[in-house]
Write a structure and sequence with these properties.
Length: about 550
């Protein structure tokens, strides 16, 4: 079959919700040959470390069209398969790097989706996924809606990036190059399922833009793959926690541009009885906080549900999902599945601080790097069983200066809660303006603005203080002065132009500064009745620009 380059604006009927969708106007190169899925009798693999045998493989030489800058899609013609939940589609570049295009399996023999692929489908960049239903993007392939054809966003599922040499990279971020490209279609249940496809094209087009209204979290994933509970003692609520809990910990580096920990996402959580689980997060400061607790000392199960899916826990007051919708409250669904989704933290009747576990809102926790530990307790360990595939910490993403480590609303002696902000980012030449402003602190008090170059921190200021020191040592002073204003009022301020300070006096903690490096700034102010006779503001992360 001859290869060709053609402008494409195919209109394909999207079976999902009956919505029409079109491919992005672009150039598609192909077609490559089709094949059987699997290509012959084959053995199953072990997800995700051992791929199944005899996949359908199709290679074709692709000449990148003149002027092309991005991959925009993989268009597969006449794709048929009896269980799309068992199909994994992988694209390999001429450089030999493999990328996930479609991966819903998430553990061989556990995906129950038996809907069909039944026609032509174009997989486009993951950024075009439109979970909020704005109509400006496309859906992912989803089960329960019958045979699927049309246009769909890339889907990585729970595939660990790099497992079996396959990476989770957006189509538009895959380097384009002329040479042999290979499409591979795996079947994770080859003895029981089958399919085929007719041919395929590789499409090039303009870059996509983020979907308005969709603000995806920056996620840091920790693999778990643990079943729980192990046999053990049921404990005594709330003074002695049960043994046999799932415990998963990892060192987490806060992503660049993150100012707050927004939520904790549990991936592939299954458990017989939701109310008999207690989910606890330990943070680098050493605190343990409740994410979910509904046991309340009672083993009654008649008005509870079970976990079966992905669940995100967010702040109990201001928590929202990635579409900006207010998070749900946990309900009581008799012997049903608690609908997977985004939920507010749920403390139930847990006495705050019992068993060293606090009822504290996620939004009040400092977003700092360090060891995080997820624990899932089972208050009836002899009766239940559960499993967790992975868990994620979900952070926000802020461009420019990032304010982090919010201090508690319990203010100073005069009720003052100081805040810090910056007018912009510093530059390596210190030529522009980067004004740091502290406001809302006690008036007529001594105040200090200090900084560090060793990263974020989250250590309680002292034993009885609700404040946090949020800048890692060593530290250096930028300015020491009176806050001005009036004693007894919250009109104290500090101000400093970072660039002017560094260009005139230099950096006490050393130079040079390089583009992409970050500095962290916080303010201290006097409050004689407080612990250490002082208070701290929130902190600021400044990232250098060229």
């Amino acid at each position: 079959m001859a290869h060709s380059v053609r402008a494409v604006a195919l209109t394909l009927l999207l079976s999902l919700y009956g919505m029409p969708a079109t491919t992005a106007l672009g150039q598609c190169v192909g077609p490559g040959p089709g094949g059987m899925i699997p290509s012959m009798n084959a053995a199953e693999g072990t997800w995700p470390t051992q791929l199944p045998e005899a996949p359908a493989q199709s290679a074709q030489w692709i000449d990148v069209p003149p002027g092309a800058t991005h991959l925009s899609g993989v268009l597969i013609y006449d794709l048929f398969h009896t269980a799309l939940g068992e199909v994994q589609i992988v694209l390999q570049s001429p450089s030999g790097v493999s990328y996930n295009i479609f991966q819903p399996v998430d553990d061989a023999n556990t995906n129950e989706c038996r809907d069909d692929f039944s026609g032509s489908i174009e997989f486009v960049d993951a950024q075009r996924y439109d979970p909020c239903g704005t109509g400006l993007g496309v859906w992912r392939v989803r089960c329960g809606l019958g045979p699927f054809l049309g246009t769909a966003a890339q889907m990585f599922g729970n595939w660990p990036d790099g497992a079996s040499g396959i990476h989770n990279v957006r189509l538009e971020e895959i380097p384009i190059e002329t040479g042999p490209w290979t499409l591979t279609v795996y079947d994770w249940s080859p003895p029981s399922e089958s399919g085929n496809f007719g041919s395929w094209d590789l499409c090039f087009g303009p870059p996509s833009v983020p979907i308005p209204g969709y603000a995806p979290h920056q996620r840091v994933r920790m693999q778990s793959g643990q079943s729980f509970p192990t046999p053990g003692d049921a404990g005594s609520w709330p003074t002695r926690v049960p043994s046999g809990a799932l415990v998963s910990n990892a060192f987490v580096s806060v992503p660049s541009g993150a100012s707050r920990l927004l939520g904790v996402r549990l991936v592939g959580l299954n458990h017989d009885v939701t109310s008999q689980c207690q989910i606890v997060l330990s943070v680098p400061t050493g605190e343990r906080i409740n994410l979910f607790q509904a046991f309340n000392g009672s083993a009654i199960v008649g008005t509870t549900s079970r976990f079966a899916g992905d669940y995100t826990f967010v702040d109990p007051i201001v928590g929202r999902d990635e579409c900006g919708n207010l998070a749900w409250d946990f309900g009581s669904v008799n012997f049903g599945v608690e609908v997977p989704g985004t939920y507010r933290q749920h403390f139930g009747n847990w006495p705050n601080g019992a068993s060293n576990i606090r009822n504290r809102a996620l939004s009040s926790m400092p977003a700092v790097s360090g060891v995080y530990t997820l624990s899932i307790l089972d208050w009836q360990p002899q009766q239940n069983s559960g499993h967790l595939a992975a868990w994620e910490l979900c952070f926000d993403h802020v461009s420019g200066p990032v304010t982090y480590c919010p201090q508690p609303v319990v203010g100073s002696t005069f009720g003052c809660v100081g805040t810090i902000a910056a007018s912009g980012s510093p530059d390596v030449q210190h030529a522009g303006s980067c004004v740091i402003s502290v406001s809302g602190i006690d008036g007529a008090r001594a105040a200090v603005l200090f900084y560090g170059r060793s990263g974020r921190f989250g250590q309680p200021w002292c034993g009885s203080s609700p404040n946090y020191l949020c800048v890692r040592q060593p530290l250096a002073r930028l300015v020491q002065a009176s806050s001005g204003g009036t004693l007894g009022s919250c009109n104290g301020t500090l101000q400093l132009d970072w660039n002017a300070r560094m260009s005139s006096v230099g950096a006490p903690l050393g130079e040079p500064f390089r583009a992409g490096e970050s500095v962290h700034v916080q303010a201290w102010f006097r409050d004689p009745p407080a612990c250490k006779q002082s208070r701290l503001t929130d902190a600021l992360e400044l990232t250098y620009t060229p």
